[in-house]
TrEMBL record:
Domain Heparinase II N-terminal: residue ranges: 45-479
Name of the featured protein: DUF4962 domain-containing protein
UniProt main location, coarse: other
Cellular compartments annotated: Cell envelope
Regions that span the bilayer: none
Source species, domain of life: Bacteria
Secretion signal span: 1-24
Source organism of this protein record: Bacteroides zhangwenhongii
């Protein structure tokens, strides 16, 4: 019996829901001198949403050798751009490179650059071939330690690319015949056939307008493609042909084709996969009609994207979905003589764009998804497909990029198994365990790179892995095995310097006793799927939330999102006079220090630049207008006199967290210190003690706060704007605590958090204060809260003698004075890699900087 499509509402809902360091590492040294030089002030650091200045310049430390050369679109004044690069300032010598003029605003060198200073310039080429004057000369330094990652030139890709169909999954060709012989015995075969059969029983010809169901049809075509590709059963091919005839009988207008950002590519990929798999059986007229549609889509988006995407910090939909499909359209047409001249530049553009700006903006080597853990899953298919195809065709491993090399560990640390996500960004609050896309990507990384974290992570959710259908074809062809043991030398702290996050775990391998702390202060700021949460943290125990960002991601920019989800008031950070951070890359932060040992883990975030005014991005201005919200101080938007916001965060293993906030403004301000919990707080106002008990797991969290400034603690379970007009059990109220401090121009706040599970809940939880000393369990904490004195924070683990010190003075370690190399360095003496060592850090300057030349 055939079924009629009734998926539009479901798929629409799903679409909405988815969507270094100056340091000394050694044993305790016999130091006889002290360097008292104060480090130069770090320059302002941010990423423009749309590039305003050429990259790289002298004030940019490059991320990769070779770095792409990128010119702002507004600086291209002709039809094409030409680049020149040299290790000589006058562009003489044999190392000088002159590029072929191209329509786009980037140039990839495709070879390793020697260490030293390099100079580059560009010029526009007019449509008649005449050359404009060269730009000013820019320079950058290549260092010996700069990570090297070289991609082959496009000509190599083009010469090796297949000329036959099917070709979309040519990187699986070496294993496809074996996979077909064994397909019925593969453990995922029942799921493969089940999904294909569901597509087989759908009555496509009865659809009144099939393009209204483009996303559902896309998914059905994928299931049929996989089933036919693996089983070679003609019935699946016939069904694909039936769908094609239904689509071709209903010509799509430009108005419908380009009605939404995903609409055209959802339609295009169905045609691409049918064209690729059934190429030898399609009639000339069917091929022509498919080619016509693919060219319409390709021309439209190439005109829109060429020059823009290389200069946009991160266009989510493009990198999630559109880039891959537009590349695939060019990939199936590039050798068709009627289109070669027009389509080859498009194929080259997307290849070069991936090299310049992928896999994660081009300015992120960390493996963590800088745009938020919640939206990583939407990028998985492209992150797997493109490097697999490029590696196979060019015979160069694109997974050697540092981001891919770090991705396995990053997935494990930012969203542990059997746990809620500890990460940030839109949708990160959803799910009680990692989703299938995340697990499938870990499996892919483990198979291809042997990464032990990825292997362990995927093995923790083996049953969920089999439910993933997007990478099923890959898994059913590839038969690699990998280790699944948790790495024995796993660190407790990971610092993602490029993305601006730190992840700390007390026992990552065992969720049932793991305390997870993630902290964000990022040069990527706020915008797109990141939120206004610089110097904010999430804290989980046993995989459940203790304190985390509040609100629900139901819409990208409705009133709840703008006022009670994206706004700084929804996060565990501060407000200044009730005002938060703007929705802008200009509202940025930076993690300046991070280090850890067996007993103490530490990081320092600087959000002094984050409270930078209202959101001036046209996208957000339009969103505020549509929601009927004005960016005024009464709504939590505006300028502030904040001059300093440094947050020190420590995990004292296994169950204590310490926060030391340094706050300054150019005039007295009201400081609102924020904390959010899924459960109600019990508040002891006089003692400034807060406690919560998890309703199902039973553990208790006790938080005590200290400051020389008077404060009043309040809580509410009401959102400024609720997620829905009427209460819903799907979106229960959450608790929002505010410690409001009397107006002052300076403030220091010490917060000590203890987690007590059922086994130790009877222990004393009160922190004992003796002047500037605070005793908490096995730890002694000293903190200067008097604003007239220099800031000072130290922690000693009394049983092991592990010590942390942030101070202008020298600490005592093992009975002797350690002469710190810099005043106000952060210094840790603790066990690392099996032995005690000293780590000393001053502020880390981000790789990407923007300063006036």
């Amino acid at each position: 019996m055939k079924t009629i499509f009734r998926f539009q509402t479901l798929f629409s809902l799903l679409a909405c829901l988815c969507l270094a360091i100056a340091c000394s590492d050694d044993s305790l040294p016999d130091t006889t001198g002290q360097d008292t030089e104060t480090p130069a002030e770090a320059p302002d650091a941010l990423h423009d949403k749309l590039r305003e200045k050429p990259y790289p310049k002298a004030d940019n430390e490059i991320y990769i050798n070779p770095a792409p050369l990128i010119v702002p679109q507004a600086m291209k004044t002709g039809d094409k751009l030409q680049f020149s690069l040299s290790n000589q300032a006058d562009f003489s010598g044999t190392e000088t490179i002159l590029s072929t003029p191209k329509s786009w605003c980037m140039y990839n060198i495709h070879k390793t650059l020697k260490s030293g200073i390099w100079y580059w310039r560009f010029r526009s080429i007019l449509s008649d071939g005449s050359e404009q004057s060269w730009s000013e000369t820019y320079s950058f330094e290549v260092k010996d330690e700069t990570p090297k990652f070289v991609t082959p030139a496009f000509d190599i890709f083009l010469n090796n690319a297949p000329r036959t169909h099917p070709r979309l999954f040519c990187f699986l060709d070496d294993g496809i015949e074996q996979a077909r012989r064994n397909v019925t015995s593969h453990p995922e075969y029942p799921e493969l056939i089940s999904r294909a059969k569901a597509a087989m029983t759908t009555d496509y010809p009865s659809l009144p307008n099939p393009y209204d169901q483009a996303e559902a049809i896309k998914v059905s075509i994928q299931h049929l493609y996989q089933a036919y590709y693996l089983t070679q059963q003609k019935t699946y091919a016939d069904k694909m042909h039936e769908i094609l005839n239904t689509l071709l009988k209903n010509p799509v207008s430009d108005a419908q084709l380009f009605a939404s950002n995903f609409g055209a590519t959802d339609i295009a990929i169905s045609f691409i996969e049918i064209y690729d798999l059934l190429y030898d059986t399609l009639t000339p007229n069917e091929k022509q009609e498919i080619e016509n549609l693919l060219m319409r889509v390709s021309r439209y988006y190439f005109k829109l994207y060429c020059g823009m995407q290389e200069n946009h910090i991160f266009d989510n939909h493009f990198w999630q979905h559109n880039m891959r499909i537009l590349f695939q359209a060019a990939f199936v047409l590039y050798d068709k003589s009627n289109y070669t001249e027009e389509i080859l530049p498009m194929l080259e553009y997307y290849y070069e764009l991936w090299t310049a700006r992928a896999p994660a903006s081009g300015f992120n080597r960390d493996g963590v998804w800088h745009n938020g853990a919640g939206y990583f899953n939407a990028n998985v298919k492209t992150l797997y497909y493109i490097p697999s195809l490029f590696s196979s065709i060019t015979q160069k491993d694109f997974l050697q990029h540092p981001w891919y090399q770090n991705a396995g560990k990053a997935m494990a640390y930012t969203w542990p198994p059997a746990s809620k996500s500890a990460g940030f960004g839109d949708g990160s609050e959803k799910g009680d365990e990692p989703n299938r896309q995340r697990i499938s990507f870990a499996d892919f990384i483990a198979r291809e790179t042997g990464d032990p974290y990825a292997g362990w992570y995927a093995a923790q959710s083996a049953s969920l892995l089999r439910k993933d259908y997007e990478l099923r074809l890959y898994r059913m062809v590839r038969n690699q095995t990998y280790a699944t043991d948790f790495p024995s030398n796993s660190p407790k702290l990971i610092w993602y310097k490029d993305a601006g996050e730190v992840a700390i775990h007390s026992d990552l391998a065992h969720t049932d006793r793991n305390l997870s702390l993630c902290f964000r202060s990022s040069t990527f700021g706020s915008g797109s799927h990141t939120v206004s949460n610089q110097n904010s943290f999430n804290l989980l125990y046993q995989g459940a939330d203790i304190y985390r960002s509040s609100g629900y991601y139901l819409n990208f920019s409705d009133a709840h999102n703008l006022m009670s989800y994206r706004h700084t008031r929804a996060h565990n950070t501060i407000l200044v006079n009730g005002i938060g951070q703007p929705y802008s890359t200009k509202g940025y932060g930076n993690i300046t220090r991070a280090m850890g040992g067996d007993h103490i883990s530490y990081c320092l975030g600087d959000a002094s630049h984050a409270y930078s005014g209202i959101s001036d991005d046209p996208m957000w201005i339009a969103a505020f207008k549509a929601a009927g919200i004005t960016q005024t101080p009464d709504n939590g938007f505006g300028t502030t006199p904040l001059t300093l916001y440094r947050r020190h965060l420590l995990m004292l293993h296994p169950d204590i967290v310490v926060i030391y906030d340094e706050l300054e403004a150019s005039e007295p301000v009201r400081w609102d210190w924020l904390l959010h919990s899924p459960t109600q707080f019990s508040i002891q106002q006089e003692q400034h003690i807060l406690s919560t008990t998890h309703p199902t797991k039973g553990f208790t969290t006790i938080t005590q706060q200290f400051s020389d400034q008077a404060s009043q603690i309040t809580q509410t379970d009401q959102f400024v704007v609720p997620p829905l007009p009427e209460p819903s059990p799907l979106y229960p109220n959450q608790w929002h605590l505010t410690a409001t401090f009397a107006p002052s121009s300076k403030n220091r706040i010490l917060t000590i958090i203890q987690i007590k599970d059922n086994s130790n809940s009877g222990e004393s939880s009160n922190v004992i204060r003796k002047g500037n000393t605070f005793l908490c369990g096995e730890y002694e904490i000293k903190a200067i809260l008097d604003n007239s004195r220099p800031a000072d924070l130290s922690v000693t683990h009394q049983a092991s003698n592990a010590i942390f010190s942030y101070s202008p003075d020298n600490p005592t370690i093992e009975g002797g004075t350690y002469l710190r190399k810099h005043p106000y360095s952060s210094l840790l003496y603790d066990i690392s890699d099996g032995r005690y060592r000293v780590t000393e850090q001053t502020d880390y300057t981000p790789v990407s900087t923007r300063v006036a030349q």
